[in-house]
Amino acid sequence: MADTRGNGVLKGTFKVKAGLAEMLKGGVIMDVVTPEHARIAEESGACAVMALERVPADIRADGGVARMSDPALVRAIKEAVTIPVMAKCRIGHFVEARILESLEIDYIDESEVLTPADEENHIDKWEFKVPFVCGCRDLGEALRRIAEGAAMIRTKGEAGTGNVVEAVRHMRAVNNGIRKLNGMSYAELVHESKQLGASVELLAECQRQGRLPVVNFSAGGISTPADAALMMQLGCDGNFVGSGIFKSEDPLRMAKAIVAATTYHDKPEILAEVSAGLGQPMRGVELSTIPREELLAGRGW
Amino acid sequence: MKERPLIGVLALQGAFREHVRALEAAGAQTRLVRLKEDLKGLDGLVIPGGESTTMTMLMERMGLLEAVRQAVSSGLPTLGTCAGMILLADRIDDGLPQQESLHALDIAVRRNGYGRQLDSFEAELEVSGLEGGSFPGVFIRAPVVDDAGSTEVLASHEGRPVAVRQGSVMALAFHPELSGDLRLHREFLRLAAGSRNGKAPVEES
Prior knowledge:
The complex is a heterodimer. By secondary structure, chain A is of the alpha/beta class. Chain A has helices at 14-24, 35-44, 56-62, 71-80, 94-102, 139-147, 165-179, 186-196, 200-209, 225-233, 243-246, 251-263, 268-275; strands spanning 3-4, 10-11, 28-32, 48-51, 85-90, 107-111, 132-136, 152-155, 215-217, 239-241.
């Protein structure tokens, strides 16, 4: 919630929440699990880091309930770097979010990678001064999150798989959803809003801008420079890379290469140069081998 | 009809598209700058907001840092906003140990000097020489100018300089490209036009 100090200074407004996401555009936000990882990410040119206890590949392997990270770890990572620090809370777990806000984290990811705390409701993000990013698989889901106050969106992909196919599917779904609005009358927008479960005002805004009204990163399965460039060319504003960096053979080199590939996504000769001799990327899994109930992207409503 | 100035916008990371939109609305042509050759023939350069460490590292790795440093020091009119202000500064406090800069403005800045995202804010600013009332300042993890050196301070907020100019280089701690107000972009285009060997200032459309 926005508040006012004396002499007209406004903090926590949607403009400054969405504004930080604008400043992250064209960059790479990297999952880190230790202060040392965070320093490597910063040194590679990450525009922000996501502080968590386990990367999604390990969360997937370990099973069990995945929760917000230990505040001591979040603090240690915050102290290790000068770039923005994000952290994840469970879907609907507004107390975890309040704890992260009190730690002065720069962005909260209300994330399907953690085990959901509420199977109907997401957090009312308007009530917070800290901005939120949320995942989506299509336009309707993106707009429901924005209606709840998310100041930034990321497509979900399938975290921890090293397989970009779901990230592509979700980015294309968002793009198709927006393209479909082109030329619709208001009556048709109302009908579409019912189909999507999204507010007609936000749909009208997407129609006017020809894109989501907030920054949209891609996430979930990006593990090579070429993957990062592919997502940029599909129209995302930047990339979250989770397991793809610290599960690769040479994390610093991989991280630098993914940063360069995100900027120079349309320059194949630069992509070839940064991709050369990187060593093994993370191994990755074929989606059809994962039991349906273990897929993360279906979490969120 | 007078020629529209060609303004390059450093497009490595950050909010460069918003600057492109604002500059074009203010009457300029634009070009995204990602490689050394993109600097050729520019009438001005904008260094946008974003993450200063990311931008600096990409510039170093692509050989762009020295090229931009030379272009700016040889008189290319330049506007830096937020991270752009940090890049233009001569002295950076709280940067990374090896953080490079363009040393184009005699100022000392402190990264994230206003605090973390929770301290990001909006405030109305009085900018000297700007007509039409106060300017909507949007500050996002903004740098603090600890020492404005020999620069001309164009605006201050709570006693701290937030807009400075030295010759044809201008730097702002806030984000005019997010405010929807084109006056500072127009001001920069006038500065760029004025330093083009007697060419007339640009028409505003």
